[in-house]
Amino acid sequence: AKLESNLQSLPRQRAIQCLITDRDNEQHLLHVSNNDGLSSSILELKDHKDIWPEVAYTRTIPVTSTTLTSLFASQGIAADRYQALVMDTQGSELLVLRGSVPLLGGFRFIKTEVPDFEAYANCCLLADMEAFMSEHGYSELSRRKFAQRPQGGAYYDVVYRAR
User: Are 43 and 89 in contact (CB under 8 A)?
Assistant: First the structure.
């Protein structure tokens, strides 16, 4: 409801509530965080607390996953109408991309948030993202560090460009 309200002045935008991973019809628990849901994830918090110690999960919601490929098909969304895919999925970015392989060739740019440490248990790491993106014809265009872990490691916003 909050997202729909935020989109009211943007008539070409629409909100779609779903969990995107690498598989259709899998059951997951979405862990809802106490920071207005900003750190909510299907993954457990791990070293995320080293940067944001105040963040905790307050409840869980059962959700069923779909792939971005299936979502686009079911919603009649043509991937080739979009130049960029922008992701911030709290550690599951690689799951999103693995379920989007048939669409990837249509995106000129992919922007993602990714840490180089295990912020969430078994999350996507920067090295994993770099390998996947290279394998699928993308190279890094820019990288901006926006949070530093005192024990080492950081969070980055990374933009990749199709080669």
Answer: no
Q: Model confidence over 66-96: pLDDT tens digits? A: 999 999 999 999 988 999 999 999 999 999 9
Q: What is the pTM of this model?
A: 0.93
Radius of gyration (C-alpha) of the chain in whole angstroms:
16
| Beta-carbon-side half-sphere exposure of residue 71 (alpha carbons within 13 Å) | 19
User: CB-based burial of residue 83 (10 Å sphere; 0-12 exposed, 13-18 middle, 19+ buried)?
Assistant: exposed
Distance CA 124, CA 127 (A): 8
Q: What is the pLDDT of residues 102-136, one digit of tens each?
A: 999 899 999 999 999 999 999 999 999 999 999 99
